[in-house]
Amino acid sequence: MSGNQSRVEAISQITNRVPTPVTMPDKLGQIWSEDVFNLTRMEWALSKNAFKAVRKTVETGAPLDPATADVVAAAMKEWAVSKGVKFFSHIFYPMTNITAEKHDGFIISSPDGTAITEFTGSLLIKGEPDGSSFPNGSIRMTNAARGYTAWDPTSPAYIMHTDNGATLMIPCVFMSWTGEALDKKIPLLRSNDSMNKAAQKVLSLMGETDIAPLNSSCGAEQEYFLVDANFANSRPDLLLAGRTLFGAPPPKGQEFDDHYFGAIPARVQVFMQDFEDQLYKLGIPAKTHHNEVAPGQFEIAPYFEAANVAADHQQLMMTLMKSTAKKHGFLCLLHEKPFAGINGSGKHVNWSVGNSTQGNLLDPGSTPHENLNFLLFCGAVIRGVHLYGPLLRAVIASASNDHRLGANEAPPAILSVYLGDQLESVFQDIKDGKVHAKMEGGVMDLGLSQILTFERDPGDRNRTSPFAFTGNRFEFRAVGSSQSVSGPLVAMNTMLADSLNWIAEKLEAELSKGTDQIDAVLAVLKDLMEKHGDVVFGGDGYSADWHKAAVEERGLKNIPTTADALPALREESVKKLFESTGVLSPVELESRFEVYSEQYILSIEVEAKLVIEMAKSMIYPAAIQYLGKISDTSASMEGMGIELDNSVAKTVAAEANAMMAAVSKLVEAMEKEDFASTEEHMQFCAHEIRGLMDQIRAHADTLEGEISDELWPLPKYREMLYIK
After folding, report:
1. Considering the entire predicted model, what is its pTM?
2. Radius of gyration for the chain, computed over Cα atoms and rounded to the nearest angstrom
3. Which range (171-180, 193-202, 221-230, 619-628) has the least confidence?
4. Which fold has domain 24-183?
5. May I ask the CATH architecture of the domain 599-722?
């Protein structure tokens, strides 16, 4: 395989790379959570009363008094210092998909000039980063920059190791001086609290008396690509945009279906083991890893955890994936579509709701009583997705995820619910009034025996559904691989809270009339399905027939781009939803529209600038150089009486000229500034800017197939995807 000098050198370095030294990993029991200051470690380090107070805070959300915070801080510091830690950091999650850190030292100086370590409850609880330097949607101005981080005791502190030291990381919320949420954690905590209150109402009406606090849980399947750093460093688009803005399809892609669950390359296996050992030390339950569908694509799937902790762990996983990949000579690509024509990457969010007394409320259970609770909670999800489908599309909207949604590799941009054949039939029977309560042998029988136990799953896996029931949870399949799971979790928790409040109101009205509990439940569910059953769909979500029927017959919305999706955050129904549940105020919701819109516009503008630069400074010169070589050779041959076919030269010249003409149009389009609104600006980016970028790419990719391999300046797909 040939290539220009940088490509040749890259291939040589990869193929002659000395394997990373490996050692036998420590036993899981020895390393599990060794770098986490969790409840187990607190029980050992704290007094009995202090530990009881902390455990109550973690399990119920009760406030922690300052005296106990001081005790926790002292124990946390002693534990961290004993492990070589000199610094601590309040870690938080601003309205981007990044993780932010503010590092401070334990050390302070005393009057006599000596140094001592100090870490009090006040330092543990509160920090003060700049509240205007992060995206805030105009909540904070530069001249009013104060912002606060505050310790979240429900998510355990942990130690991050680097080659030259270690830092104590303290998960925190991030808020403005005036109290507005500037992060992703506060809305998540609020949404869970709102969902818990609504769920308690429904369960109380169902006769439950011992009801522990409810929490949502999350297990996020993370897909990603690995590209050798030698290739990536020769690709400005990969380094700055996270995806290839140019690249012709390789002769062999994924058409043989030989990658999914295939043998993991040895070098990648070493990376995975190293990565997962770090996860285990941090108490992150990585359960599964394997090859994904595309060449060079992989997946890791953690076990489910409480949503707040899972969201923190997911952010930490993305950070560790990138740093560990770098150590092994890879660039980890979390972009949803790093390679055109190749399967993109998602982050399937498995979501359920439950507690320690009633268990998982999205599990059908094994008794009729459990069935009733399940049907109400499942019905609440159906109603929520139907009413707030555009919101669910908005919270997974990004410039990068737009490349994936709607393609035949990811769920379409129409939000529907897949229940499986058996469960869909049950809800349809309830809607049609075919399910009646009856007594058999003294046991309540709702005619729902088909969902109590299964000889097979209640339905086949429908990979075309964006929101699918999978036996005891829902899987939100449309979430992007680079995204925080907090946004989707907030939306799902909040829509569920709203639907449970609606169910509680309807159920209470039925029961107050003296209606039998079972009949009351069936009446509420019948009403719910008559109003919202159109969102349930078990067929092929990719088909053109469904796209037409969903919109024209069922009234669902097809929302193809982020520019179309984000305005949902400004809809009155969405404002009312978040305000009534106490999750986001109108000001906080508007700030998210502003931040996400700006991120979308800036992302596309960065890519457009890269397209212009790479086309002008790398691809066009390669075309001209190739034409020059052909011209010289042709002239030499003519002198010998040999006439060469000049069709290739004509093709290269035509494509190069067409590419540069499109570049000129893109440069002109980028100068436009007079937009009437943010919405108009986003639509311009989605269609005009993106359209011109696609035109330029089409010409450039044609040139890649025509120009001599030794002159092509960019590592090719066949190299990046297959050479490891």
Report:
1. 0.91
2. 28
3. 171-180
4. Ubiquitin-like (UB roll) (3.10.20)
5. Up-down Bundle (1.20)
